[in-house]
Amino acid sequence: MTLDVTYNTDFAQVEVDEQQINLDRFNLFFPEKRPFFLENAGVFSVGAPGQIDLFFSRRIGIGADGVAVPILAGARVSGSAGDYRIGALNMQTRQLGAEGIPGNNFSVARVKREFPNRTFAGVLFTNRQGVGDLAQEDDYNRVFALDGQLGIGQYGFVSGFGALSATPGMSGENYAYQATANYNSQAWMLNAGYAEVGERFNPELGFRQRTSSYRHANGLVFYRHRPDFLRFHELRPHVSYNGYWGLDGLYETGFLHIDNHWEWENGWEIHTGINFTTEGVRESFEISKDVWVPRASYYHREAMIVGITDESLPLSLSTRVIAGGFFGGDRVTILSTIRGRIGEAFNTEIGLAQNWVNLPGGDFTANLVRTRLSYSFTPRMYLQTLVQYNNSAELWSMNLRFGWLQSAGTGLFVVFNHTSSYNRAEGFGAFDPEITNQTFILKYSRLLNVLR
């Protein structure tokens, strides 16, 4: 068992988020990067990752509209005791009077009992409690959950979870559950699942991609074949399906994917696929500035091709091209990444996401450029930079980090962050200084073994 205690916590040395482009009406998922929450994070993981996570640590330290909320103190106990995996976390955030944000106490408790043959049973409890002068009466949110997995033979297992939330003023239909069956052998990978989320299920310490209630069905048939011709390493034909229905029966999303992966012995790959998509839009939404998608049901097809070169080489490239129907119009998406390295010291990555969208309500482009550089002077000294440009948000950003490590992530950190808003109307290169943000951070931490 490990006990971690933190006071006046900051995460200045952590890399900033990678920007994303949202071409839909659902929430984007940004993964956790803060080391304190990443350590032993798996013990608290319950739910469907990226869709409905019952505990999502990024809820701690962030308020409405992305306002940063300082963390006053916290503690975590995690580890194993025999066949049990145990985790308990408690964090306290400060009250921000100027923004009207009360202090909050966040608690998570998790116990998981492991059995032979990939079988386990667990329980999870989360609680957010408003504290301080600004907190209202009965300002809390709680979630109770049970989850488990049953291994069947060498290759199969079934798993699932069930959860209830408790929020003042939100009673009835406060449930969520999921059940999946999986089979994964050397040749075949099969799975099928079903999930349902009630209208008032409210995991405030978790993540929901879709905030409305729904039923979700999914399935996958995936085959691996290693032929003895044309220097193929593996062929992977497969079919997958994801469907979402509102509890009122509206078919909100359908995605049928038919594909084959062609992989050669030299590490090169080509993926060729076709997608059949359905989108049932309940309420019109603004997909880009002054471009609206009206309420309707949309049925489309799109072709997809992926090319990947040998990633073990000093220079490699991966490209994904998607073209087809989109919300009553059409779009072409190209996602490209170039990776380069020189020895073990220098690594670079350039990513480009390009979207050309033509809709009945208007046309637009949505592009995102990301450049990452990393140079290690020694195994303990590095310089890293992340530069991004998002034309949809009209935003430039740069994150520059120098680290001189001692042990366990401690040492000297120098961080420079710069964000500029690009005013498209005034032409390329015009920046508004009123909304430009720059920070320079110098941080030093040292680990002391007080018990030795």
Folded structure, characterized:
It contains one helix and 27 strands. By secondary structure, the protein is mostly beta strands. The protein has a domain at 1-170. It has a 22-stranded antiparallel β-sheet, with no helix packed on it. A three-stranded antiparallel β-sheet has the order 2-3-12, with no helix packed on it. It has a two-stranded antiparallel ribbon with strand order 17-18. The two termini are 19 Å apart. The model has no long low-confidence stretch (mean pLDDT 93).
- Put simply, the count of helices is 1
Fraction of residues in helices? under 10%
Name the helix and strand elements from N-terminus to C-terminus, one letter apiece: EHEEEEEEEEEEEEEEEEEEEEEEEEEE
Structural class: mainly beta
Mean pLDDT: 93
Count of extended strands: 27
What is the beta-strand fraction? over 45%
Give the terminus-to-terminus CA distance. 19 Å
- Globally, the shape reads globular
Unreliable segments (pLDDT under 50, ≥5 consecutive)?
Answer: none
Rg, Å, rounded? 24 Å
* Major β-sheet annotation: 22 strands, antiparallel
Any descriptors?
452 residues; mainly beta; 22-stranded antiparallel sheet; 3-stranded antiparallel sheet; 27 strands; 1% helix; globular
Structure at a glance:
With 452 residues, the protein is mainly β.
Q: How are the elements arranged and paired?
A:
Blueprint: E1 2-9, H1 35-38, E2 47-48, E3 52-53, E4 71-81, E5 84-93, E6 103-115, E7 119-131, E8 140-152, E9 156-166, E10 175-184, E11 188-197, E12 207-208, E13 214-223, E14 232-245, E15 251-264, E16 269-281, E17 285-288, E18 291-293, E19 296-308, E20 315-326, E21 329-342, E22 346-359, E23 362-378, E24 381-390, E25 395-405, E26 411-421, E27 437-445
Antiparallel strand pairs: 1-4, 2-3, 3-12, 4-5, 5-6, 6-7, 7-8, 8-9, 9-10, 10-11, 11-13, 13-14, 14-15, 15-16, 16-19, 17-18, 19-20, 20-21, 21-22, 22-23, 23-24, 24-25, 25-26, 26-27
